[in-house]
Request: fold
Amino acid sequence: MIAYIVRRILYVVPILILVNLLTFWLFFAVNTPDDMARLQLGVRRVTQEAVDKWKAEHGYDKPMLYNGAAQGFGRVTDTIFYEKSVRLFVFDFGNADDGRSIRNAILTRMWPSLAVQLPVFLVGLAVYISFALLMAFFRATYVDFWGVILCVAMMSISTLFYIIGGQYVFSKVWNLVPISGYSPGLDAFKFLALPVAIGTFAGIGSGARWYRTIFLEEMGKDYVRTARAKGLSEATVMFRHVLHNGMIPILTGAVVVIPTLFMGALIMESFFGIPGLGSYTIDAIQAQDFSIVRSMVFLGSVLYILGLLLTDISYTLVDPRVRLE
Reply:
């Protein structure tokens, strides 16, 4: 187990280096440091002196990847890539282009993101599995037939429809909850109730249909037929055997979404005015703030790889036959 975890952690380094290089190249392929300076200064006919001053203040006046004018290791370290990307490996996110600390912003904004995504994840997982078990239990009946039709219909509707429709009905017409905004503490409930409900409801179609497929596949295996031949009730077969043996694919889908709990939902936070990491990323993209974008991409990559590692480790908890060694 320990050797496996160490190997997986060692795999992380080249993956993160590649992600950093691709992000760095893609961003500067679109915008040069001069373009970034003019965008941040907000003046179309800004002087070159002002552009050079902004670049010097924000560390964009150095060569991209290699500094031939420097000596020794300075040829590599005295570059934009080293200053802006390599330091991410020690979680030194630096400052945004407006001078504010990215680390402080992440630590502050991660809690609103968790406040939305964690309830959506937990409640949604319970709802999706329950609905899928119901359809699988009454397979080949009208319950299963209309349940699949409902799932397909819900999958065909954009999440934006649920957001806009929910805001119109529950906030504007019925005036039950605020249409947008956020407040810390207990007052956050009234702002989070609608986003959590919409996030859970919007995922029922895809989630329940996927889990239904898993359960139906398990129900066709030999151990299920053997359990029925022994006289076990259908409910016992479903909950004791089918559900338990379907936990590996369930864990695969559940643990992998861990990064989204921290990173937040981009569309949800933007529409509901929640100051989480999702809206933080959207604002950075619109402002073309490379410092924030590459920090969020790096953080998302680390969390995603961590989620995959936790998925592999969790397999041994639900299936002792799996040996990571």
About this structure: The two ends are 6 Å apart (CA to CA).
